[in-house]
Specification:
9 helices, globular, D-amino Acid Aminotransferase, Chain A, domain 1, alpha+beta, four-stranded parallel sheet, five-stranded antiparallel sheet, Dna Ligase, domain 1
Length: about 290
């Protein structure tokens, strides 16, 4: 059997997946997103990438990265995945899942729609609207890139002059302004990872940084997953239509569990090491068999 992995062949995650795939008699092949091409017309539709003459030969395609690109590039990549699915190749996570999860505005809206708590959020496009939002959010807000993960590009703002400079700079590069009320917290949050129906979880503890991303140095500890946390994880999974998903949950000092992030291309390096679970094997098994 053959598994395509949309990502870099040099990444730790591809190498982990390649190891796990080999143990299941599956050949894992790295497929860079930027190499995708497609053909239409009188010919039979085809899909290619670098040395792979036909992506239709793969039993499954696992999305392991979502590189930045122009609007045209991103739209083409998503549409190519949609068409690859229609041609009979199993794509994990599906294109629709990626479209939801990479857009923080849409994700937040869908989470709120199913009754999950999220921080107060305002999304806008001008500096004036962003400054009004900053005031409405209590002059303590977190600005996030609409597309992004692992804590990159996230800034907490508490001063008006700083807020103005940041918002002006973002508008200057034609970014959408996504602001959330800062949630005071005890210095830790919960990372919940779902691979199909299987649920894993850890607590991420930080010292001196309000962000708890492992990529930024947070310490990972084992977690006893409560019924409430499991319900939050599964409702988030359903809202994002995501077979494989990580859900970040923050306990606010008001007693509310807030969903901060839903990641459809989740990392598992720290979680797997902490729990001593072969997450890559779980991912490969799900991708190939469901």
């Amino acid at each position: 059997m053959k598994l395509g992995v949309l990502g870099s062949s040099s990444s730790w995650y591809f190498q982990d997946l390649q190891r796990a795939a080999a143990a299941q008699n599956v050949k894992a092949v790295a497929v860079p997103f930027t190499s995708l091409s497609a053909g239409l017309g009188a010919m039979t539709p085809w899909f290619r990438a670098e040395e792979e003459s036909s992506l239709l030969d793969f039993d499954a395609m696992l999305v392991r990265s979502m590189p930045p690109g122009s609007l045209e590039q991103i739209v083409f990549r998503m549409n190519a995945l949609h068409r690859l699915e229609s041609a009979g190749v199993r794509v994990v996570n599906p294109a629709r899942t990626l479209e939801i999860a990479i857009d923080k505005y849409l994700t937040s809206a869908l989470l709120a729609e199913v009754g999950l708590a999220t921080p107060d959020t305002i999304v806008c496009q001008t500096v004036d609207d962003a400054m009004q939002a900053f005031h409405e959010l209590g002059k303590d807000a977190v600005v996030k890139p609409l597309f992004g993960s692992e804590g990159r590009g996230i800034t907490r703002i508490t001063e008006e002059a700083v807020a103005w400079r940041i918002c002006k700079a973002l508008v200057g590069i034609q970014a959408v302004l996504y602001l959330q009320r800062f949630i005071p917290n005890p210095g830790f949050d919960f990372r919940l990872l779902l691979v199909g129906n299987k649920l894993f979880g850890v607590r991420r503890q930080t010292h001196g940084d309000w962000r708890t991303n492992v990529s930024l140095g947070a310490r990972v500890e084992s977690l006893e997953i409560t019924t409430q946390l499991e319900q939050i994880a599964r409702k988030s999974q359903d809202a994002a239509q995501a077979p494989i998903v990580a859900v970040d949950v923050l306990p606010g000092d008001d007693g509310v569990l807030y969903v901060l992030e839903v990641n459809a291309v989740p990392g598992w390096r720290g979680l797997a090491k902490c729990l001593q679970v072969d997450i890559a094997a779980e991912v490969v098994s799900y991708a190939m068999q469901g």
